[in-house]
Design a protein that fits this description.
The protein is of the alpha+beta class and 278 residues long. The chain folds into 3 domains: 47 residues, Orthogonal Bundle (Helicase, Ruva Protein, domain 3); 172 residues, Elongation factor Ts, dimerisation domain (Tetrahydropterin Synthase, Chain A, 2-Layer Sandwich), CATH 3.30.479.20; 41 residues, GTP Cyclohydrolase I, Chain A, domain 1. The chain is built from 11 helices and 10 strands. The strands form 4 sheets. The chain has a 3-stranded antiparallel beta sheet with strand order 1-2-5. The chain has a 3-stranded antiparallel beta sheet with strand order 6-7-10, covered by helices on one side. It has a two-stranded antiparallel sheet with strand order 3-4. Helix 1 packs across helix 3 and helix 2 crosses helix 3. The longest helix is centred in the N-terminal third of the chain and has 19 residues. The two termini are 48 Å apart.
Length: 278
């Protein structure tokens, strides 16, 4: 067995993020050379990344960062395979670092983010792959959101007290109103709207809903003359369920979200909602 000390193992763990047994094996293979052991762990880690590509990542965390003046904010989802890793400090530190990088650099899209340099000589993709190797699980970064220009706020929800936030919402109002922003963000977290306004719903989605509504009505034996009204009612029901401004407000379902915002004297410019793995 190679000659190395507990201090060497500790140093290698700090440099690589790998587990104790993996570090001991690497030092043994490297005959006690810490630098060579780092290379061995990187090579083995990257092989592990490839092997994990086919596995699913449905756990993880959502991180939000908001500017001190609330003029911008970001939402980042980082996924892993198990809740055990999700609740770990290492994984959450990686998620936080990526969120801080997104906040600081405002990348145009995911592809730009992944090739951007998060540390000297290291891209975000490399950074995620290193986390993949050191944590021994598939780690996935495939979406983020950034809002800016108005009053931006966030809401994070934990589905379990021992896990990091699993649901995150970012909202942008046209003017400052902390209470309204919080209420709308919590509503969005609970009711999961897909669109801001009716106009944001793609026409092909609307047409598909019309086809389904008509086919369903015919299957139910509804009178031909009544079909247009029935179809329109069901399409409106789709809007009510999926368009945030048309949804009944969580705290008072006699009002729509639009009505609540109007009463508060603000408008919702945009939102983003992530639920880990969904």
């Amino acid at each position: 067995m190679a000659n190395f000390t507990a201090a060497d193992v500790k140093k290698l763990r700090e440099l690589s993020g790998a587990g104790m047994m993996d570090c001991k094996k690497a030092l043994d293979e490297a005959e006690g050379d810490v630098t060579k052991a780092v290379e061995i762990l990187r090579v083995k880690g990257q092989k592990g990344v490839a092997k994990r590509e086919s596995r699913t990542a449905e756990n993880g965390a959502v991180v939000a960062l908001i500017a001190d003046d609330h003029t911008s904010g970001v939402l980042v989802e980082l996924k892993c395979e198990t809740d055990f890793v999700a609740k770990g400090e290492k994984f959450q530190a990686v998620a936080q670092a990526i969120a801080e990088h997104v906040f600081a650099t405002a990348p145009a899209d995911l592809a730009t983010l992944l090739v951007s340099e998060i540390e000297p000589g290291k891209s975000v993709k490399d950074y995620v792959d290193e986390a993949n190797a050191s944590l021994g699980e598939k780690i996935v970064l495939d979406r983020y959101a950034r809002l800016s220009g108005g009053y931006v706020a966030s809401y994070l929800h934990r589905t379990s007290p021992d896990l990091p936030p699993q649901v995150g919402v970012l909202v942008e109002l046209d003017r400052e109103n902390a209470d309204a922003a919080k209420d709308v963000a919590q509503h969005i977290a609970a009711f999961a709207p897909r669109f801001l306004t009716r106009e944001d719903v793609p026409e092909d989605v609307v047409e598909n809903e019309r086809r389904i509504a008509e086919a369903t009505a015919r299957e139910e034996g509804k009178p031909e003359a009544a079909l247009p009204k029935i179809v329109e009612g069901r399409v409106n029901g789709f809007f009510k369920e999926n368009v945030v401004l048309n949804q009944p407000f969580a705290k008072d379902n006699k009002k729509t979200v639009q009505k609540v915002l109007t009463e508060e004297g603000v408008a919702l410019n945009g939102f983003a909602r992530f639920r880990v793995g969904a």
